[in-house]
């Protein structure tokens, strides 16, 4: 266990307190114990065991092939490496198709060491959020460019552009919070809309390609380290390795930049 082992681990109620105090939340994806130790030592608040592992670890073209077993395996590995950051396990495609199925899978993730689960979308997922929260399982919602919708969206495309799409996203953001979610990831959303959603949201927002106005930021670890995963890099990605000088330095540089508001900039945001 790393240097923060003596500190109190992040808990779900602390997320709202961090927001109230104006402390921006730092989140990164991670999939193994060694990197989890590095993230913890660099002071990262939240670790997402994302289904992005399908693309950056397994080499698929989308997140759709990821299985429940994969997320449970990587969650357990991350949990062995880091105690202090809040660990969030991502439902892979289809694993949250019904409230009951989501609950059975969420129990596996919690038992593997997660403190929260993340699911994409609103609509019929609202019932699942309620079902999980009623059963003491904290939920992070994920709206905007939801990669599991790649088939219906016809690619990875910025969402919420135009009046009716923006209105729908605003309504979904309020609905997931009302259903009981404690955190909201906004991905691939115009910065101005993300600001409005954040201002109206009763729960903290975490942006990725959603401009600087969210309550925190998340990146895929491989993108922050400039690793060529064979996929096109979206404009919100920044390679922090050059300025950080080392892997640990890059992660610290990212955390500092999120906290002091110098990342992301307009260059990493959509209009
Ligand atoms: O799976 C993942 O890494 C994610 C982030 C991009 C938010 O969902």
Could you characterize the architecture of this molecule?
- The protein is of the alpha/beta class.
- 41% of the residues lie in helices and 14% in strands.
- Helix 2 crosses helix 4 (68-81), helix 5 (99-112) crosses helix 6 (125-134) and helix 8 runs parallel beside helix 9.
- The model has no long low-confidence stretch (mean pLDDT 96).
- The structure holds 3-methyl-2-oxobutanoic acid.
- 3-methyl-2-oxobutanoic acid is lined by residues 29, 48, 50-52, 90, 142, 185, 187, 208, 218, 220.
Beta fraction: 5-15%
Unreliable segments of 5+ consecutive residues: none
Count of helix runs:
12
Q: How many strands, which pairing sense, and closed or not: the largest β-sheet?
A: 8 strands, parallel, barrel
């Amino acid at each position: 266990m790393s240097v923060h082992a003596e500190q109190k681990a992040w808990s779900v109620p602390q997320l709202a307190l961090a927001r109230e105090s104006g402390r921006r939340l730092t989140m990164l994806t991670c999939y193994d114990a060694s990197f989890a130790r590095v993230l913890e030592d660099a002071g990262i608040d939240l670790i997402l065991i994302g289904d992005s592992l399908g693309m950056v670890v397994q080499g698929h073209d989308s997140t759709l092939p990821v299985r429940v077993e994969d997320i449970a395996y990587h969650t357990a590995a991350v949990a062995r490496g880091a105690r202090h950051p809040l660990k969030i396990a991502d439902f892979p495609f289809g694993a949250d198709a019904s409230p009951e199925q989501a609950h059975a899978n969420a129990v596996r993730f919690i038992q593997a060491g997660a403190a929260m689960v993340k699911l994409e979308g609103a609509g019929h997922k609202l019932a699942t959020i309620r079902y999980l929260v009623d059963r003491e399982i904290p939920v992070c919602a994920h709206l905007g460019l939801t990669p599991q919708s790649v088939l219906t969206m016809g690619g990875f495309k910025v969402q919420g552009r135009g009046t009716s799409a923006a209105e729908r996203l605003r309504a979904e953001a309020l609905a997931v919070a009302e259903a009981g979610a404690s955190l909201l990831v906004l991905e691939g959303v115009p910065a101005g809309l993300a600001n409005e959603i954040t201002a109206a949201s009763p729960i903290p927002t975490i942006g990725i390609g959603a401009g600087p106005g969210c309550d925190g930021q998340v990146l895929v670890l491989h993108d922050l380290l400039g690793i060529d995963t064979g996929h096109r890099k979206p404009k919100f990605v920044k390679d922090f390795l050059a300025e950080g000088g080392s892997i640990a330095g890059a992660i610290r540089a990212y955390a500092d930049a999120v906290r002091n508001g110098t990342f992301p900039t307009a260059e990493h945001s959509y209009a």
